[in-house]
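Bench notes, afternoon.
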Amino acid sequence: MLSFLPAPLRGVLAGLLLALNTLFWCWPLFALSLLKLMLPFAPVQRSLRSGMHWIAESWMAFNSFWMDLMRRIEWDVQGIDRVDMRHSYLVTSNHQSWADILVLQYHLNRRMPILKFFLKQELIWVPVIGLCWWALEFPFMKRFSKEYLAKHPEKRGQDLATTRRACERYRSNPVSVFNFLEGTRFTPAKHDQQGSPYRHLLKPRAGGIAFVVDAMGEQLDALIDVTLHYPDVQPSFWDLLAGNVRRVVMRLEPRSIPSEFLGRNYDQDDAYRLAFQQWVNALWAQKDETLEALRRD
């Protein structure tokens, strides 16, 4: 363990290990992705997809190694035993830091199917890693403003179409579809700007996960509700690289997806949309209480 090194040196070393890890695994990933494009046969594609997932899991495992190398984090995790690799899940979490993704992967990697994140379409242009996300079939979403949709109504519903296409590809392998419901990281300024009714959370956006429920329905075994809490300080990504994150609390709570939500259309069914939003708001109110209790401990 390298905790004796100065934090800036640990950060540079961890960043270098992350970059080298990504460059090492991206080439076999791209090779399998090219084969998958050239061989459009379902059994072959299932095998290639499994190989690509193994590569991504190996990338995550090495990231966990350098995280341990920089500092042994004190983990307080509950509920991890309630997921497995055999089922498909819809996963959501509160979003406090750029470190959240690596923190989630540290504990969920090879304990449940690989997390497929919803990503903004612009992120496909991130060097190397954007192509990796594309190869792994992460759904890239293009968000339109209300003003743009008013002028171009033909664009309405494209997010749902993108989600449906992505989820169709997930039917042949167990998958964990992940979405940060808040849509952005929590900050006090954003909280005040929104007028959020929650003490420790931004307002949730129900549409993203509603589209997944619409598209995948009964394939989903449960919603895995993850609550993240950093007892010492809300860390930056640099804090994670530099080994400044000392303690992390994680709670996983499987929740049943109400059967009345299956086979419905979020865009076109007003009663369903209202019921779904109320369900998500109730989940968020419970998460807010959980965070309040964790802060008091």
